[in-house]
Design goal:
Radius of gyration: 19 Å
Shape: globular
Helix content: 40-55%
Number of domains: 1
Number of strands: 7
Low-confidence stretches: 5-20
Strand content: 15-25%
Distance between the termini: 38 Å
Oligomer: single chain
Number of helices: 7
Order of helices and strands: HEEHHEHHEHEEEH
């Protein structure tokens, strides 16, 4: 009898623990795609860094809003209530030096410290944010690499971050890399 009681207690503790782990996902603001430290490979594939900065970075962020049924952020990440707040990312992406955006050699891979450093530069606000920190769009390797990062907007403390990779596909440069974003989101595996 004592063993059954301990088993029930262990199950209850596990259920409470699982629910507590995702309790931050009740209300989340989608912050967008932050390209401030991203590298796009190569200059033969990304031929106009100024146009990329001024047009495509905006377009890749906007497609998530315009095609929200496909880019189901809430569904892919198990979020109950999703709002959108892209102002910080828009401002940050506009500060990018286009000459440093496109490279021909593979850059160093991000570590968690890089993600922490990027989040520490965000203005403080309220609630929980989810941002995709873009590490790279790598045409030779046919991968887009992102850090899906949940953070407390008041303290800028990272709650959870996960490296996701998506394979690009499609005809135009916008759609080619938008599909990489979609596949990375889908790979998170929460959507039923």
């Amino acid at each position: 009898m004592k063993e059954i009681g301990l088993l029930i207690f262990a199950i209850l503790v596990s259920i409470i623990s699982i629910n507590a782990q995702d309790s931050f996902k009740k209300e989340v603001a989608w912050m967008g795609l932050d390209f401030t430290e991203a590298k796009l490979l190569t200059s033969a594939d990304f031929t106009d860094p100024v146009a990329i900065k001024n047009n495509l970075l905006v377009s890749w962020n906007n497609i998530i809003l315009k095609e929200s049924e496909k880019f189901d952020v809430a569904g892919f990440f198990g979020i109950e209530t999703l709002s959108y707040d892209l102002e910080t990312v828009k401002e940050r992406n506009q500060s990018i030096d286009p000459d440093k955006l496109v490279v021909d050699n593979s850059p160093e891979k991000f570590e968690i410290q890089k993600v922490e450093s990027i989040i520490s530069q965000y203005p403080k606000s309220t609630g929980i944010g989810l941002v995709f920190i873009v590490e790279s769009f790598n045409k030779p390797d046919a991968t887009g690499t992102f850090w899906a990062t949940f953070f407390n907007r008041e303290t800028l403390e990272i709650i959870s971050t996960k490296k996701l990779v998506g394979e690009p596909s499609g005809v135009s440069i916008r759609n080619f890399w938008a599909n990489s974003i979609f596949k990375a989101m889908k790979s998170n595996g929460n959507k039923k």
